[in-house]
Amino acid sequence: MKNIRASARRARLNGAVTGLASTTKCAQRNRPPAFVTNLYNFLADQNDRGNAEKSINGPLTTFVATFIETRIETEMDYHTQMWNQLQLIHEVDRQYYSWDPTVSSDISSPNFAFSFASEALFIVGLNPASSRIARRTPWPAMAFNPHSQFRLMREMNTFSAMKSTIRERDFALQGSLNPALADYGVDSEAKQYSGLAADENLICPFHAKGKIE
């Protein structure tokens, strides 16, 4: 795909294996994002590796898509553009895959999670206009984190410690906890994706549709 500057490649960030796809701009309306194929390949690779390892001692994984020529003016601007990208890749994905049955496709549900290739993913939005220092990057980006890793960490009783460490570091950096944070199952995790301070009136412009038969 012509917008790919660097096809998905591996890098190690603090012990995690990271897939990186660098694109020039966010896709527009009927054009799927250029990183879609890379994300499919990344998840397939991680599933193969995970089936072989079956161990939380293996490196954690995330896939990061960056948009180096997309201009972001405000946090709300990023919030809107991020959800537009997620809607566009969902329109591609539903041609081949159903929603992950372990999570809800209802964005208002406390059990919601974004699904791609029938794999539940937690999205972390990053952008230069973010009010949260930990989410501030030179250009817009999205990190895709498999839910399967979180489930395994819960089984291994390491999830709570990891969550506490992340929140402690965020507090030390910012001087306050991110008000968008909430435990899974308490409120829709969709409100946490863009990093915009969430309240009951925050709208996440996304509509999940069934698999095209």
Detailed description of the structure:
By secondary structure, the chain is an alpha+beta fold. It has one domain. It contains five helices and six strands; from the N terminus they run ββαβαβββααα. It has helices at residues 36-53, 75-93, 147-155, 159-174, 190-193; strands at 4-13, 16-23, 61-67, 114-116, 119-126, 141-146. The chain has a six-stranded mixed sheet with strand order 1-2-3-6-5-4. Strand 1 and strand 2 form a beta hairpin. It is globular and about 50 Å long. The chain starts with a strand and ends in a 20-residue tail after the last helix.
How many domain units?
A: 1
Mean pLDDT: 78
Strand order in the largest sheet: 1-2-3-6-5-4
Biggest sheet layout: 6 strands, mixed
Amino-to-carboxy terminus distance: 26 Å
Number of helices: 5
How are helices and strands ordered from N to C? EEHEHEEEHHH
Q: How many extended strands?
A: 6
Strand content: 15-25%
- Structural class, from helix and strand content? alpha+beta
